[in-house]
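Attaching the record inline, Q. Sequence:
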Amino acid sequence: MTPELTALTLAGLLQVVQFALMSIPANLELGPGKTLGPRDPDRLGKPLIEQVSPRTGRLFRALDNHFEGLILFTLAVVVVTLSDQSSSFTAACGWAYLVARVLYVPAYAFGLVPWRSLIWMVGFSATTLMLLAALV
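Structure, as predicted:
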């Protein structure tokens, strides 16, 4: 397995961890009546994310953000892997993405400004550089 694929696999497992970090406090705060139900808008009154504590809300948003970032990172890894363009540079980009995503979770959960945004930019830049490296 290439380093980029290893980083992608670990990023997928990070998504699982993030889901647990968000869903456990959300279930404790909202109760099973809301989290196990069909979540119909007329029954809930307002979206679940608006009914949880600020930190749990941040964990919701961090999870959603990782889903978005993981799409582009997966694309970069697939392009690099299928084009047989794995290099020490693309491997470093893959690891930079993963480290940034790991650091992003607590930075977002604890509302660390401006660090959350700077950490996000590191991951996004690493993904962009992987894509560009595949073109040259």
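The helical segments are 3-30, 32-35, 41-44, 54-82, 88-109, 115-135. The mean pLDDT is 96.

More tomorrow.
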